[in-house]
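Lab channel / #folding
Pinned by the channel admin:
"Please post every new chain as: sequence first, then the structure tokens as a reply. Keep commentary short and put observations after the output so the thread stays searchable."

First post following the new format, from NK:
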Amino acid sequence: MSIFPKISLRPEVENYLKEGFMNKEVVTSLGKQEAERKFQTLLNHLSHPPSFTTVRVNTRLASVQHVKNLLLDELQKHPDLQDVLLIPVIGPRKNIKKQQCEAIVGAQCGNAVLRGAHVYVPGIVSASKFMKAGDVISVYSDIKGKCKKGAKEFDETKIFLGNGISELSRKELFSGLPELKGIGIRMTEPVYLSPSFDNVLPGYLFLQNLPSAVVAHVLNPQPGEKILDLCAAPGGKTTHIAALMHDQGEVIALDKVSNKVEKIRQNALLLGLNSIRAFCFDGTKALRFEMVEDTDGEPPFLPESFDRILLDAPCSGMGQRPNMACTWTLKEVTSYQPLQRKLFSVAVQLLKPGGVLVYSTCTVTLAENEEQVAWALRTFPCLHLQYQEPQIGGEGMMGAGLSFEQLKQLQRFDPSVVPLPDTDINSLRDTRIEDMIWLANKDCIGFFIAKFVKCKSI
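Reply from TO:
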């Protein structure tokens, strides 16, 4: 059930999304009323967390069963993703008593709390004037960014996230000391009860949304191959690829932000993976045509250098959940398509004939997903769409001129296809495992995957 308002968007951004989801092909197929209902349902889902937390097991260090034994017995292994564990999210919990003492947190901090995080000091915007360390306080999210830092009260739009215990007093929080970090409020009664995996079996587990874990399986890397992850940070999919290859072969990871590249290296080290080489490099410039001596395998690369390529493209991120507010302008939301095409063109040229290219995004827009597939098939006749395994998401969305057969070859994860669940401990006990898996597959973040094979050289 819905307890939060739908995601707050600028009117021009909401209208842009609505035009995509109510395009002529969709309205002709579903009818105007059903298309409108699905779109409004999607906006509602985006402000709520998914029904499950998913963690990927680092199978290079331990078996799934061993890690499951280290955790709680109620963890469920996904039947189609043998290295993924599902943890049900309990909520929304409606009988939490609101406290007189309050703290206001920023929207991004609030989103993290809904996924199981405690409140860290930098995320706290304001607190009641009488708040002391050890107080039980109610935590609210300022979804519109109206609260002033250090305010003693805030009466505008705020969303209740649950109760917690303050680790610091108001005076300590707003003393102006820059070194203040760490947990500011330890959540004890969150509206959505989702496990926090901070420092829990760090070498064994990687917190990852379900569709993100599907991507590497769709790519299907094989031991001994040379793989490119063109936009790799923070390295979740990179490390997954290396693990599926049994750490045999070479995984090249590129990102143009140096501290993100360092994060990839840290994750590879933490997970005990030696086949990954991460470089700080702009993926749009990763192709070269002249032979250069002594490059030691560093970018840029010659054409047809890789067996498989993952392009998890920079995108508008409009599928991320929970997200109660997005302040982006229409110009920002629509700015990614040209960059995605530049990266895609580089990827096609770097791919060997017979090689596999997987394109993915964490957004729901038609322009960044199905329209990109249609453009790719027109622009590169050497590419053919392939059916995906595992096929967990739904088929692609109409509106980009793709055939029904082509739409079936895509995976679009659309959370609007299910009602918002209302999950408590008792209902979990009575739920069949098959129904839990079905819900986990549907009620996740918005995501898109396309798989291409390159039939011949360009």
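NK: Residues 32-46 form the longest helix (15 residues).
TO: also worth noting, The two ends are 51 Å apart (CA to CA).
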